[in-house]
Amino acid sequence: MSKKLISVFTAFMFMLILCSFVTPYSFNEKIQGNKTERKIVYNKKKHSITLTWSAFGSSGNYVITRGGSRLATDFVQVGSTSKLTFTDNKPNADKYENYYKVTRNDVTIVISLENQIFGDNMYFYDRKYEKAETARNEINSQFSTIGLGGANGEWTTKRQAYYFKANVKGQTYDVGGSGSASSAEANSIELGFYSHIGGLGKVPSDVKLGSIFTRPHLSGGANATCTFWRSVENVEVMRDFSWTVSQSTSARRLLIDSTSKYISDIGNTNFWGSGGFIADTHYTTSRPNWAGQQQWYTRNTIFPAGSGAMGGSYNMVWQGCVNPPQADEKNSPVSTTPIVREKPFLFIDKDGEYKVFVPAWQKDRVGVSWTATDMGKGKIQDLITDWYVAKEGVTDVEINNALKEGKNIFFTPGHYSLNAPIQVNRKDAILLGAGIASVTLEPTEKNTWGCIYADDKDGIIIAGLLMDSFNSTTYQVRIGNEDSKADHSADPILLTDITCRVGGVQSKNIQIQVAMQINSNNVVGDHFWLWRADHGSQKGGDLRWVRDRCKNGLIVTGNDVTLYGLFVEHFQEYEVLWLGERGRTYFFQNEPPYDAPNQAAWSSQGGKVDGYAAFKVANTVKEHHTIGMGSYAVFTGTDGNVNKKNGFEVPNTPNVKLEKMCITRFAGPGNIQNVINGTGGSTATGAKRVAVYNNDSGTQPFDEEFTLPNKESYPSYVSMEK
Which of 445, 591, 704, 712 is catalytic? Predict the structure, then answer.
C-alpha cells in the first residue's frame, strides 16, 4: 500500500490476502501492532472472491468497492453489508485485477491477492485501469517524501520495488514531456535509494516508460559518487534514460529508444560519478556518452553504429557489445562474454500467472539475450508452486525450511534480520531479491557466522541481495565448503547483483574476516560491490579503522572462477586475494582504505611492503587473466604518511596476465607508488597505466602464508548437507 493511501485512509490500514489456484483455501495473518484480522479467498471453480474482516468503524454498513488495480481511476460499488464477510460472484476475469476497498465511516481498508502474495513494499501498476501519469506521480511523491533522494535516504532500511504490467492496446506509461531526463519538462520517473523498477512483460517492449532519471544529491547535483543502491530491468525507455549513478546500481534487459548526449545528464562539465554496470541492453537510435564517469562496465549491449567517443575517464570495459568504442588506453573492448547466465526476473505469463524466468547458460555471447518477440533461452518457473515468497519479518528458520522443501526464495523488498545464515544446501536453488532486499545479522548477536552459506552444489543462483552486518561475523557470503572440489562446469554457480557492506550504519565495533569467499569451482559472478564503508551515519577517520573491521573483500580459492564487473573498496588488507587457478576478471574497480592511521598499521608481507595491493594473485597461482583494472588513491583519514607500494601484485609466471591497469590519486597526501610489482610509476605525478603485465621484469612479491577462515570458525549446525 502506498504512502499516499496510508495518509488518506489512516494508519489503521492493513492487508491480508489469500490466493488459491486450484481449490479454495484461506490464510490468516495478523498485522504487527494491530489485532484486526482479515481474509480473502479465491475460488477458481466458481470464479468468486470472498472477503472477510474484523470489525472496524463505529456504525453503519460496510461499503465494498472494486477497482482493477490499486490506483485504478474508477472504483465501482459491488456491495454493502452489515456482516463481516462479502462474496463477489462477478469479479473481473483476471483474479489479480480485483482490488477491494472496504469502507465504514472514515476508515478504509484495501485488500488484493497481489498485496498478500508480495507484501506492502511492492507496488504494481496497470495501464489498463490507470492514467499514464499515475505511476510516475506516485513514485516521484515517494522519492521526495521519504528521503530517497537525499543523504538521509542512503542509510534507510526502507526498500521498495515498482512493477509495471504489460501495456495493452497501444497504451504506454509515458506521461509526455521533452528534453533530457534531468529537466523538469521531461516528466521523468525519478528512482531513489533502495528502489527497483521492473517490467512484468516477457520482453522489454511490453512495458513502455517515458524517461528515467536518478538525481545525485552531492555538490548541487553534479556529484553522483554516492548515488548507490537502485536498479531497473525489463522495460523500454521511450524518451530518455539518464542513469546518473555509481556503485551497486544495475541496469539490465532494457530497450532504450533515446538517450541524452550523456548517460549522466546533469550538472555541467564538472559532473563526475563512480559507476557503474549495464548489461543485456539495446540502444536503438543514439549512442550514449558516459561523460565524467570514472569507470564503467558494459556487457552484451547493442549500440548504433558510430565511431565517436563514449566518455569515461580511466577504465571502461565493453564486453560482448555490438559497436563498442575503439580500443585505447581507457577503453577495453572484449569481443565476447565467454560464459554467462542472465539474472532471473519476475513476469506475468500468458495464462495470467506470476512466473520467474531463469535464463539459460550461454557461451561466447555477443549482444543481448532476447529479441523483440522472444524472451530468450531459459526455463519458466511458477512463482506460487516453485517459490517461497519472503516478506520482511520472516525468520532464517522459515527461509531455510522452505529451501529444504525444494522451494526457491523470492525476497520481496525489505530488511531481513536473521539469527543464523541462510543455508543453500541443494542444487539449482535460487535466492532472488527485489528492491535491493538486504540480509543482515541483527537484532541479536547469535549469528556470528554469516548472512548466506551456499554449499558446493550445481546450478545455485544468488541474485539481487545486499548483505549487511550489524554484528561481527566470519563471512558475509561463503560459496562452497573450505574443501570444495566438485566440477560444476556443466552447470556453474551464478552470483549476480551482489552487494556486501561492512559498516556505515552501526555504532558498535564489528569485526569481519572476509566479506565474500568463493571456495567452489566454476563460479560466475556478474556484478559485485564489496564495500567497507568509507562514510556513514557515524564519525569516520581513525574511529572507523577500529570500529568497522574487515580484512578482505573477496577471497577466491576455487578454480575456474569468472567475474564480470567487480567493485571492491576500502578493505584493510588484500582487497581481492586470488588463490584459485584459471581465474578471470573482466573489469575491476578499487579505492584503498581512506582511514589507515599510519604506515605501521597498514603494511603487508611481514611489514616489508607499504600497504596492501588491491588485487593480489598469490605466488602459488600458475594461470590467471584479468583485463580492465583501476585502483585510485584516497588516503585522507591518516597521519599524512600512508602510501601503498603496488596497486596490483602477481607472480612472474608465463600464464598469469593482467591487462589495462590504471592507478591515480583522487585525494589525500598518500600515493600508490607503483602500478604492479614495482613497475609503472607513482600517482605522485598523475595517472599511471600499464597495458600488459605478463611474466614481466617487475619484482615478484615475497612468498607468504594467508590466514583464511576455517570450519572451526562456525558451529556444526551451519555445515551444509553432503
Answer: 591
